[in-house]
């Protein structure tokens, strides 16, 4: 079964089915039913492909679940579980990694430390202007400023209380002290990374180096051996000189701190400070201070969760210094310890939900947008895949730890909104490739914008909520916000034991799910009819409306004049008697209202409005044509002559700018639904689906032509009786358009096709375009040569050959040495005779009909035979191809003159 047979069925079916097809056109319900049956057949034929497509997200999710399980199993091994010893399991037996999982009913007390830069990263000072080596102990600088410089510098010197002299003069004195009490009285620091929680202080694990910050180091280093909960611990204690450096204002501190990082200076070296203090307007009546600290360690993880930074000691240092200045040197305010909240034993687990975050799942859902609408038969399948993707992903916390009902409503709402968006986007594109590129850019761009912009505003509690709601009117932002809230609840449910997202949580002012659901539902209700209108009313399309508004003050004739003026074209009225006669016939038929069993085009024009200062483009220039039932009309023309544009207007794909057409009395502009039931179309492109059989194709098109029951069955069976093509009739009072129907067919198939068309054309009117002169002469009762959007001649093949091909071609073959004699004798027949071909003794001459008779030709040939041997000769009339070439050349000459 080929697309030609389908075109036949599309025009109306068998003879007994024609009455039903003429009674009324197929209703919307009939067309929807036909589409449903066709889609079901298509899906059945593509069962394996659909199964693979549907299985892909399931396989991806299964892979994620397997990865999650493998990672969880690996994290469940001893290196990631709480360490155990002789007295049980706990932090004391654990590494810093293991300590995170230990149960802590009574967490340990840890001294408050200061974050001290490593020796190679410490800022250069006047005391030590050279870069420190790894083995050196360089000073650590603290930046100071304030309105009262004398007071600020005094407070700076008091930030670092000195260690009593007996601690370093008496051997072993440090070991005899309560080390936790001593740690609370001095400024103790470390260059180790701070912990995320304080169940284990990484600076106080055995054999670490601790720094004691002093304004003047009277000792270098010492070894501290202590007992902690029955466990012997040893530390290296080093004295580090702390240098308060004065800055004129806080801007100077900002600049020096920024340049202290590799990215802030041209030399790409670290030049870090311990901290910065701005005592502002501190006086004896009150303490007011701003403190700069290193927050880099709070962003060492992808989830940006806060690290327990070493800030409390910095605050205590300023408070203690101020009290000493105010009340005396003997006054002390100890910061004894820091302590974490109790916690149960946990298992280390990597949640892929957090790893992929909201952006990943936003992309996953939106990536199906380019697939919607490109093949309408798969839309329902795409929706099912999206739903199955969500269900198959239930192994991840974002799906597992939230209410399934909330998730179903959220994804179901967005899926329907996304389907509507695909229909809406489709009305703005005519190319699938362009639409695919644009929608992919939309998917990735909107996701990145949501992650970079919307996320920032959501997390900013001071940002007005109504502006966030306005941003969420953008569908991609609504999806991102919903997934973000689901991920947030899943994270809190796993790490903090909070309840998952339930319906009651939608009333939480910090929860945006309620707003998202309302916005997506309203957008779906609004955009669905809008997409339908844009798809079914091209004249209401925003782009068309814009063009109309630009051109509303110009009549069609004015626009044509502007085109001619802008291009410098002069209108020359060359006589086209057959075209003018056709226009006269059309006018007479319209005056008499005699349009029964007729195909009539009246002054049909199509003009595309110019853009960016370019003139309007005239596609069809006032075409008039009248055809009766049983006629086959051929449109000949060079490539680009707008033949297909004319057919697109006649089948409703493109609306004419002016003029109209009538098919069996039905107006092209107002009765298109009725016309659809009475026309068949065979376009240049293939209109078949490879997965469907010939019977399924015919059933679909038959139902679209309002054939049902026995009539449909019989029409299909009659169509299938032929080996390749349908020849049982195209339907009463109908028109069939065939655009280059035989292109690509082998000679035998072409002849079969011609026989079918000749057998059936008595029952319908057919209009075909072709580049084959042989096909036009074989099939067409009348021919029109169509150039640059208008007819240049109309008539039967013989009439056109007689009118435009008034010549004969004489071919004579002789020995090459007699070439001159042949040429001389033939040219004596008429002054208009000329030779247009000569090679190896074969010569061809053009002889005018009116000037050279057959007897003259015979006399010349006989004379040549008597003079020398004539190997062969022949005389032929002009062909349709000759007519076509001549008319095209004349049209080009006229165009050059204008």
UniProtKB/TrEMBL annotation:
Superkingdom to which the source organism belongs: Eukaryota
Protein name: ABC transporter domain-containing protein
SMART domains: AAA
PROSITE patterns documented for this protein: ABC_TRANSPORTER_2 (PS50893)
Transmembrane segments: 352-369, 408-429, 435-457, 469-491, 516-534
Keyword Iron-sulfur: no
Stored Gene3D superfamilies: P-loop containing nucleotide triphosphate hydrolases (3.40.50.300)
Keyword Nucleotide-binding among UniProt keywords: yes
SUPFAM superfamilies attached to this UniProt entry: P-loop containing nucleoside triphosphate hydrolases (SSF52540)
One MF annotation (Gene Ontology) recorded for this entry: ATP binding
Keywords for the protein's UniProt record, in alphabetical order: ATP-binding, Membrane, Nucleotide-binding, Transmembrane, Transmembrane helix
Residue intervals of the ABC transporter domain: 604-813
Similarity remark: Belongs to the ABC transporter superfamily. ABCA family. CPR flippase (TC 3.A.1.211) subfamily.
